[in-house]
Design a protein that fits this description.
Layout lengths: L10 E5 L2 H13 L3 E6 L7 H8 L3 E4 L13 E4 L8 H8 L4 E2 L1 H8 L4 E5 L4 H14 L4 E5 L5 H5 L7 E5 L2 H5 L8 E4 L7 H4 L2 H9 L10 E5 L3 H7 L5 E6 L8 E3 L3 E4 L2 E5 L8 H16 L4 H10 L8 E6 L2 E5 L6 H8 L6 E5 L18 E6 L4 H10 L4 E4 L3 H11 L5 E4 L12 H16 L1
Parallel strand pairs: 1-2, 1-4, 2-3, 4-5, 6-8, 6-9, 7-8, 9-10, 10-11, 11-12, 16-20, 17-18, 17-20, 18-19
Antiparallel strand pairs: 12-13, 13-14, 15-16
């Protein structure tokens, strides 16, 4: 960990705990800051706050005092999920106080080079696959960020001969000031989180923070097939590495039906990639470009691409039974994600869908329903999704109560060579606490079917 003096004797407010708040408070305390933590959870029920108090950190729990910032704070480090409309955050903005997320701290103390990965979709798959490639190439990778491991906790232990692969949300990036990864990856940009950012333009600006401070010694790998991302990339001072799944590029990485190309020259055959779908091809192109820039072993790269079958709950290959392949895409909580999943397969699909009814339309899926043999629906949207599927020309539609029941029903409706795909296009909260639990139930039902 780099020793930085900028935090010494500085009065810092950490707003919101959870894992990132605890890690930030402990790090700031270690760096010599005068830290105060404010969290809404009452102290008597707040084990994290109790632990921080024992370490000598000031804690204010159970409420957010309106006059909290009158105590002379010089910096606010907030939980990424806390919106900028929060009264304390708004007050900090009015006072022109810097407002960070712990990602900024992670960068400032890191001895290891960083690879930062952002985008509306594909972040987790790209991060996980790149980590596996670097590990196979003995590059000593560490994984951090939005994928579940607090970034500043990882970089505090990272050494100069390691590489930190960091998944970054727009919420995290919005709270950065000097953050500068050596390699930045921007997978795509679709309309999302407008309730948090206000406009699509502001959402894009938050994402742009991944490259805003980069210079000519750094690299930005970006989606050349999206004009909006290309326009942002044109503002970057990094070396630009565009990627495309539709056009062969002479200045980046690209693919056609047969080959992956690096700088316009054939690099490796496309058919070694185990992950299905155009969206995953884009993720893979980002990973290959990063691996080349980091001088990874090409054989290790090829082997990892052949064996990596996806991140859990994200078009995850579960297994094959009686010539039917099963895929768990429980993370598909909206039509955009289900559209990507449906377009990933050339075989007939038995689609398992439905969940929480937010009132959104399924119309975006219509062009992708032509390859769907049958639909099995459950959850609050089961009637609406069944009507939509019927209107799309799907003649085989079954209604069940749970995902556990959906798997044997989907198998019954399928034929040899079919793909059975859980891609709900809806959140899980009408029946399940999380998409992870929904996906785990799907996996368990597939395993039971195979017994």
């Amino acid at each position: 960990m780099k020793t930085i003096e900028s935090m010494k004797d500085k009065k810092v407010l950490v707003l919101g705990l959870a894992k990132s708040g605890v890690a930030a408070a402990e790090l700031l305390h270690k760096l010599g800051a005068f830290v105060t933590v404010n969290d809404a959870k009452p102290f008597e029920d707040n084990k994290e706050a109790q632990s921080l108090l024992q370490q000598g950190i000031t804690v204010i729990c159970g409420h957010h005092p309106e006059d909290l910032l009158d105590d002379g704070f010089e910096l606010v480090v907030k939980n990424p999920g806390i919106p900028y409309t929060n009264p304390i955050v708004a007050d900090a903005l009015a006072r022109k106080l810097p407002i960070w997320t712990e990602v900024e701290l992670a960068y400032q103390i890191s001895e290891a080079p960083l690879v930062g990965i952002t985008g509306s979709n594909g972040k987790t798959t790209t991060t996980s696959l790149l980590f596996d490639v670097l590990q196979a190439s003995k590059k000593n990778p560490l994984i951090a960020g939005n994928i579940g491991t607090v970034a500043c906790g990882v970089t505090a232990k990272a050494t100069a001969d390691e590489v930190v692969v960091m998944e970054l949300s727009s919420f995290q990036l919005m709270g950065t000031e000097t953050f500068k990864p050596h390699i930045a990856i921007w997978t795509n940009l679709f309309e999302a989180h407008i309730d948090y950012h206000g406009t699509m333009a502001e959402y894009g600006e938050a994402k742009f923070n991944i490259t805003r401070n980069q210079d000519a010694n750094d690299y930005l790998i970006y989606n050349a097939d999206q004009e909006i991302v290309s326009n942002f990339a044109a503002r970057s001072k990094a070396q630009l590495i565009p990627f495309s799944s539709s056009t062969i590029l002479k200045d980046g990485i690209s693919a056609d039906d047969d080959m992956i190309y690096w700088m316009g020259e054939p690099y490796m055959p496309r058919d070694i990639i185990a992950l299905p779908g155009k969206h995953n091809l884009e993720n893979v192109l980002c990973v290959i470009a990063s691996a080349i820039l980091l001088q990874c072993d090409q054989q290790a790269l090829a082997h990892t691409l052949q064996t990596f079958t996806g991140v859990k709950h994200r078009t995850q290959y579960v297994g094959e039974f009686q010539q039917r392949k099963f895929y768990n895409d429980s993370k598909a909580t909206n039509t955009l994600a289900t559209k990507s999943a449906l377009s990933a397969f050339n075989t007939p699909i038995v689609l398992i869908a439905g969940g929480l009814d937010r009132g959104h339309s399924f119309e975006e899926l219509r062009p992708y329903m032509s390859n769907v043999r049958a639909v099995v629906v459950s959850g609050e949207t089961k009637v609406r999704f069944a009507e939509f599927a019927k209107d799309c020309g799907v003649s085989i539609i079954a209604t069940v109560d749970t995902v556990n029941e959906a798997v044997p029903e989907a198998f019954r409706l399928s034929k040899s060579g079919d793909t059975i795909l859980l891609s709900p296009s809806c959140a899980s909260w009408d029946q399940y606490p999380s998409f992870e639990i929904r996906g785990d139930l799907f996996i368990a039902a597939v395993e039971k079917l195979q017994q």
